[in-house]
Structure formats: structure tokens, C-alpha cells
Write a structure and sequence with these properties.
- By secondary structure, the protein is α/β, with parallel strands linked by helices.
- It has two domains: 2-104, no CATH class; 107-374, Rossmann fold, CATH 3.40.50.
- It has 17 helices and twelve strands.
- The strands form three sheets. Strands 6-5-3-4-11-12 form a six-stranded parallel sheet, with helices on both faces. The protein has a four-stranded parallel sheet with strand order 8-7-9-10, with helices on both faces.
- Helix 6 (120-129) links the parallel strand 3 and strand 4.
- The radius of gyration is 30 Å and the shape is globular.
Length: 375
């Protein structure tokens, strides 16, 4: 009976030791330790590899307790066993610390910026798709539009805005402006540590998937069309696709004036879009964050055979995926009374607030004006 009990306990110990080996192979599963654990009938552990209890070898039960309960420095005797256990202990503690840091980082807000109010369509999609997240939004209303400005100017403006958003300890920044995504995103990613996501790449990916005949249209500002950024991204995904760009500079002021459903907007849209209709595109990218606000007008003119791609929607979806991969997705709702959404502009805060409330139904309590030139 005694031998049976000893063999059973030895078998249990061996099984648990193997379990540790499977869970932490780099720490436990090595020849130096395993060759001392089993000889076909029971566990054989040389005395020098045993923790000691009052200077004597301990039983299998005490050894098991020691393995499960020991802390660094408490295992005596074998320096090899002690080193392994210390490494295991540190690994567990380091994992816990990383987890705590990620949890803390996940509570930080998302930064979003645009040349003006168009980026609110991106912010709106973020609010819909990942509703637990906090947002700090900046609209450069004093210097809008970006579409007609040079690459150097847009990049300088973007740097200033990023420096402002960093004062709010944002965990990531969404460049919710097609022109800034085209001109400045690459430089921003090199110069700042915070992760960025632009609106061009998600829209290009979605269009590449949606097209059936390989003819993809892009409507955007002069700057975005002139950069050929959509063509570059789409060609990387589908070299056989043909991209047709059309600058529509009057859409932005029409949107900002609130003329979303207006005969004037219809007439101008027809003039812009007829060329793309004649070409026979089957997919059209709304390549400016203002344009989703006149989506119904564009859809009516283009017809049911043309798929409209909204980069604002695609960007929010890709943002969620990125946050999940980095362990930065906020899992819990914002606490009652906490300021969930903050809005800042470089000019015209009251006008911005009125416009924002017309497209975002989450209640914008305030919009503050800041001097972006200070950053």
C-alpha cells in the first residue's frame, strides 16, 4: 500500500511537472531537469535538486507545495531550480505589469483631426462602431480648406495639430482629412511615437474589394486628386485596376453651408459626375470627409449600379481592429459625468458647434477655440 501510494504521488508530481513544461517550455522543459524526474517506476530527484526542509530532503507532497507556493529566494539547494523558478516568477509579474499598463493606456482618448468640419463624419462613425471610446477632436476651421494648399503647408499644419493632441495624452490619432492623409501622414508617422491611421488606405482597400469591372472613380479635393494617393494604394492591391480621379472643389463650401439637399448641389454634382458616368466606373470613393454628407445626392446621380465607398466608415472599422490588436480597445463605458467627447477648433467655435450638432446626435456640449499657432 505504501509503495502504491508513493508511486501514485510520484506519478501525480511527474504529471504536474510535465504540465508546467507544456505551459512554460522555455523555463521548465529541458533535459537537465527532465532526466532526473522519471525512471519507469517512480520519480527520482537527486538530493541536490530538492528544496530542503530543515536541512533534509522533502517528500513529494512538500516538493509539490514548494513548487506551487514558492517565491523568489525561497527555493534552496539547486541553483538551477532556483534560477528557473525566479525566471518564471519574473515572467508572471512582468506579464501582469504589461497587462496593467495596457489597461491604463486603453482608457486614453482617441485624437481625431481635420481641416474643418468634414472629419466629424469620421468621428461619428467612431462613436457608432466603438462607443466606449473617448475622443478629442480638432477642426482647423481658421485655415480650411487644405485641398488647395501645398504639401509643405499641410504638413506644417498637421504637425501643430498633432502636438496639440499629444497634450491630451491620446493613444492614437486619426487623420480624418484626405488631403492631410495624402500629404502629411508619412512624415507624421516618422516624427511621432503615437500610432496613426489615415482615411485614404481604408477607403482604397474597400474600393479594391468592391469593384467588379476594375474601373474605380475617386472624387476629392484638388490636393488629394493631385497627389494620386488613392491610385498608389489601389494599384498595390490590384495592379489591373484603373482609377479615375475628379476634383470637386465646390462640394466642401456647399456642405459647410448646409446645402446638402439643394437644387444647386444637384446641378453642380451632375456637372462633376457626368464624366465618371460616361467612363463606366462601377465603384466611387467619396474621397473627402465632407462628401458623405451629400451621399444621397451622389448616389442618386450615379445610379444603383455604382457602389459608393465611404472612407469614414472604413476608417472607423480599421481603427477598431488596430486597437484590438494592440490591446488598446476600451472595454468599459465612460464613467458617468466624465467628459467623453471634447471638441476644439482654431476659429468659429459657435458655428462649429451648431454644424456638429446637426450631424452628430450625441450632444456636443461645447467647442473651444485654441490658438493652434502656439503648438
Amino acid at each position: 500500500m505504501g509503495r502504491r501510494g508513493a508511486t501514485w504521488r510520484a506519478g501525480l508530481l511527474c504529471a504536474l511537472w510535465i504540465g508546467f513544461g507544456l505551459l512554460f517550455p522555455e523555463l521548465f522543459w529541458n533535459e537537465d531537469i527532465c532526466k532526473y524526474t522519471y525512471d519507469g517506476e517512480g520519480v527520482i530527484l537527486e538530493e541536490e535538486f530538492l528544496p530542503t526542509k530543515e536541512g533534509r530532503p522533502i517528500s513529494e507532497e512538500d516538493l509539490l507545495d514548494a513548487i506551487l507556493m514558492a517565491k523568489p529566494g525561497e527555493i534552496k539547494g539547486s541553483s538551477k531550480l532556483q534560477e528557473l523558478w525566479n525566471a518564471f516568477w519574473k515572467k508572471g509579474r512582468k506579464g501582469s505589469e504589461v497587462s496593467m499598463e495596457q489597461t491604463k493606456a486603453a482608457q486614453a482618448p482617441i485624437g481625431v483631426f481635420d481641416s474643418g468640419v468634414g472629419g466629424l463624419t469620421v468621428a461619428r462613425e467612431i462613436m457608432r462602431q466603438i462607443p466606449n471610446e473617448k475622443i478629442v477632436y480638432f477642426g482647423d476651421t481658421a485655415r480650411v480648406p487644405y485641398g488647395s494648399k501645398s504639401k509643405d503647408t499641410v504638413t506644417r499644419f498637421s504637425r501643430q495639430i498633432v502636438r496639440f493632441l499629444e497634450t491630451h495624452q491620446v493613444k492614437t490619432i486619426v487623420v480624418a482629412c484626405n488631403t492631410a492623409s495624402a500629404y502629411a501622414l508619412e512624415d507624421l508617422e516618422k516624427e511621432f511615437d503615437v500610432p496613426f491611421i489615415g482615411v485614404v488606405k481604408p477607403g482604397a482597400k474597400a474600393a479594391s474589394v468592391a469593384t467588379r469591372n476594375g474601373k474605380i472613380g475617386v472624387i476629392a479635393t484638388e490636393g488629394t486628386i493631385g497627389s494620386h494617393i488613392y491610385s498608389q494604394y489601389i494599384k498595390k492591391i490590384d495592379p489591373e485596376a484603373t482609377i479615375y480621379g475628379k476634383a470637386c472643389p465646390l462640394f466642401v463650401p456647399l456642405v459647410e453651408e448646409g446645402l446638402w439637399e439643394d437644387p444647386v448641389t444637384d446641378e453642380i454634382a451632375k456637372r462633376y459626375l457626368n464624366e465618371l458616368i460616361d467612363i463606366g466606373i462601377d465603384t466611387l470613393i467619396l474621397g473627402c470627409t465632407h462628401y458623405p454628407l451629400i451621399r444621397s445626392t451622389v448616389a442618386r446621380i450615379m445610379g444603383d449600379e455604382v457602389t459608393l465607398v465611404n472612407p469614414a466608415y472604413e476608417t472607423a472599422r480599421e481603427l477598431k481592429e488596430m486597437l484590438e490588436k494592440k490591446g488598446l480597445l476600451k472595454e468599459t463605458p465612460v464613467a458617468l459625468g466624465e467628459n467623453k467627447y471634447q471638441f476644439y477648433v482654431s476659429d468659429g467655435a459657435e458655428k462649429f458647434k451648431t454644424f456638429a450638432n446637426s450631424i452628430i446626435k450625441y450632444g456636443i456640449l461645447s467647442a473651444k477655440t485654441i490658438n493652434i499657432e502656439e503648438f
